[in-house]
Each structure stands twice: as structure tokens, then as C-alpha cells.
Design a protein that fits this description.
By secondary structure, the protein is an all-alpha fold. The protein has 16 helices and no strands. Helix 9 crosses helix 14, helix 11 crosses helix 12 and helix 15 packs antiparallel against helix 16. It is globular and about 65 Å long.
Length: 403
């Protein structure tokens, strides 16, 4: 077997392995989200205190994500991802053990820190696999994350319905997901830095290119956070629907995002990142307009579905463009991830504040304006469309500490 053929097989195998890691990462998030009410009761915190505690995962991620590149440089991409994904899956048990607000905040900080480092490592490795395959896979990888989150939330819903203790549920889930993550990491690419290559800094400001790309991601994640947290409230209180129909709207939004991500790679390969995001922005804006003017639940639900379709592929393409925007992919991806995590942190509170000061209609008018930015500034993702490297016959010929 020639070296090139072997390399192709190894890269294809790594693609499926990285996809499995994305699914495991998403399953942890879904498992946690469904047991938040149990965690709130166990820690004896009110709604306001819970809101404060739920900000700590984003704080932890923002602090820790820049470290991912240095860890990958030190241990190589495979060992780094293996350790970070295990750290993330095992951190699932921490929040349910917290007996009060202080320990809950500390647990969620550690939970977010491990999530962020694993996120950067797996996205950087996904970009490397995409480069070697010379075709888009990042949207599909993020689709696998969404599928994993749905599976984790379904299992968590069942556990909550059965009245199980979240400590037991999360311990079992963490054990299973840790095993699955470690097995999947066996087949990811093992990329080592060059011997004379300087390690990346422990902490560094994101490069300018990452800031521009991150601005696009900020708009998309803001719309995603607003829709996930407020779509049901919008239908329930603005349009006076039943609780079941309001919940179905949120589920529909999530499903359209997952489906669009899984199918998005073919669209990106056909039309390129820039045109895809411009078209996505138009869909998101159209969805936002329908939400704002909706006088009937069906119109609003259609609007949220279009919003999900419009923003689904944007963040994966932001990570892909960041990974090709400079000499240090991990640092650029960490910068974009930090900005998007910040957007996810800000969005729910900002929407609530605007709704309190004016109305939910005004809140989603702001979301619609931000969606306009997707179409207007999609050109900054052009790095994802040009000069993709071809397959290389020798893995060692690929430079750089790419986790």
C-alpha cells in the first residue's frame, strides 16, 4: 500500500473519530442541561443565584481556552484530545455534587474550563482533517455535536422523569461518555510539533483575524442563544399559545439547526463559505422578520425554524476560517471560541433586559439586525475558501502545533 493511500485511509478514519468526539462533547452538555432543576434544588439556590452560577461555565471557558494550544504542543494532538475530552466528560459529575451557591459556582467554573479546552482541541483537529481531505466537514462535525446534545438531553429527560438522583445519573453518564471518548481518540490524527518550534504562549490576545471572524460568530451565537432560551417564552406570552406548543417551537428550532449542520458541508463545498453565509444571513433575517411581525403561532414557528437554518453553519465555518487565518490555528480558534462563548453568555440576559425595558418584539428586532451582519460581513470568512492544502504523503510534512 502506497504512503498516499495509507494517509488517505488514516485521514478518513480520523474524520469519523473526531465526529464521535464531537458527539460525546455534545452529550455531556445535553446531560447537564436537563438536570439543572435538580441541581438548583440540591444547592438550595433561587432563580437569581442560579442565573449567576450559570454564568461561570463561560467564565471558566474564556480563561482556559488559550491553554489548549500549549497542551497540544506539549503532548501532541491525540494525547491532548484524549486527556481534555476525559477531563470534560468527568467534570459532568461536579455540579450535581455542589451543596451551595459557592461550591456550585466553583464546580461550573471547572466544568466550563474543561469544556472550552476540549472544544478548542477538537475544533482545531477537525480543521486539520478538513484541510487534508480538501473538502468541508466542519458543519457536519458540529451537526454531530447537536445530535450528541439531543441524545444526552433525551437520556436526561428520561432520568428526570423517573426521578433519579442526578448524582447517580451523571456519574453513570460520565463513565460511559469517558469510555466512548477515549476509544474515539484512539483513531484521531496524532500531530506533533516540529522540534525547533516554539510553544504557543499560555495566554495571548486573539489575533486581529480572529476578532473579525469572531464578530460573525458573535452574531450567530447571539441569535442562537436568544432563540433557544426565549422562543418558548415568545410563543407562550406574546402569542398566548399552550405550553406544549411553545416547547415544540424550541424543539423545532433545535432540530432545524442540527439537520442544517449535518447537510451543510455539501452546500459549502458547492458554493463556498462566503456565499453560504451570505445566503444563511438572508434566511436568518427573513426568519427574524417573521418572528417580529407574527400574529399567529405558525408564523412565529416558521420564523424560528428559518432562524435555525440561517445560523446553523455559521459557527462551524468561523472555526474553519480561524484555523486557516494564521500560523497558529489553536490560538485563532481559541480567540473565536472565546468571543462566541461570550455571546452565548450575554444573549439571554440582553434579550431579557430589552424585553423588560420595551418588549420581546423589540428584543427579536435586535436579533434580526444582528443577523443582517451575517450577510453584510461574510467576506471575512474568505480564508475558509482559498488555498486548502492537498493531501500530503507524509504526516510529518504538515507543520505547526495543530491539536
Amino acid at each position: 500500500m502506497s504512503a498516499v493511500v495509507y494517509e488517505q485511509r488514516e485521514v478518513r478514519r480520523s474524520r469519523y473519530a473526531v465526529a464521535a468526539v464531537f458527539a460525546v462533547h455534545g452529550a455531556v452538555t445535553g446531560s447537564f442541561a436537563t438536570r439543572v432543576p435538580w441541581i438548583q434544588d440540591h444547592a438550595s439556590v433561587g432563580a437569581g443565584q442560579l442565573g449567576l452560577a450559570l454564568a461561570f461555565p463561560a467564565f471558566g471557558a474564556s480563561v482556559a481556552m488559550p491553554l489548549a494550544g500549549r497542551i497540544s504542543h506539549r503532548f501532541g494532538s491525540r494525547n491532548a484530545l484524549r486527556g481534555l475530552i476525559a477531563l470534560w466528560t468527568l467534570s459532568l459529575v461536579l455540579p450535581s455534587l455542589a451543596p451551595n451557591l459557592l461550591t456550585l459556582c466553583a464546580a461550573l467554573f471547572a466544568y466550563g474550563a474543561s469544556a472550552g479546552m476540549a472544544d478548542v482541541a477538537m475544533n482545531a483537529l477537525g480543521v486539520e482533517v478538513e484541510n487534508r481531505l480538501d473538502r468541508s466537514i466542519m458543519s457536519g462535525l458540529h451537526g454531530m455535536w447537536s445530535a450528541g446534545a439531543l441524545i444526552g438531553s433525551a437520556a436526561g429527560t428520561l432520568a428526570a422523569h423517573l426521578g433519579s438522583d442526578a448524582r447517580l445519573h451523571h456519574a453513570l453518564a460520565a463513565a460511559v461518555l469517558t469510555v466512548l471518548g477515549l476509544v474515539a481518540c484512539t483513531w484521531v490524527l496524532d500531530i506533533q510539533p516540529a522540534q525547533d518550534e516554539e510553544p504557543p504562549p499560555r495566554f495571548a490576545l486573539p489575533p486581529k483575524s480572529a476578532l473579525l471572524i469572531g464578530a460573525i460568530g458573535f452574531c450567530a451565537v447571539f441569535a442562537e442563544g436568544a432563540s433557544l432560551d426565549w422562543s418558548a417564552v415568545y410563543l407562550r406570552h406574546r402569542l398566548q399559545t399552550s405550553a406544549g406548543l411553545a416547547a415544540a417551537c424550541t424543539t423545532g428550532f433545535t432540530l432545524t439547526m442540527a439537520a442544517a449542520r449535518i447537510a451543510g458541508d455539501k452546500v459549502v463545498d458547492r458554493f463556498g463559505s462566503v456565499r453560504t453565509v451570505r445566503a444563511s444571513g438572508v434566511l436568518a433575517v427573513l426568519g427574524g422578520v417573521l418572528i417580529v411581525v407574527a400574529g399567529h403561532p405558525a408564523v412565529a414557528m416558521t420564523g424560528f425554524a428559518l432562524m435555525g437554518l440561517g445560523i446553523a453553519v455559521v459557527v462551524p465555518l468561523c472555526f474553519a476560517a480561524a484555523g486557516r487565518s494564521g500560523p497558529n490555528p489553536s490560538q485563532a480558534i481559541a480567540g473565536v471560541a472565546t468571543i462566541t462563548y461570550t455571546s452565548g453568555l450575554v444573549a439571554p440576559g440582553a434579550i431579557g433586559g430589552l424585553a423588560q425595558a420595551a418588549s420581546l418584539v423589540v428584543s427579536f428586532g435586535v436579533v434580526t439586525l444582528l443577523a443582517c451582519g451575517l450577510a453584510a460581513f461574510a467576506g471575512v470568512l474568505r480564508a475558509g475558501d482559498r488555498n486548502r492544502p492537498s493531501l500530503t504523503p507524509e504526516p510529518a510534512a504538515v507543520p505547526g502545533p495543530r491539536p
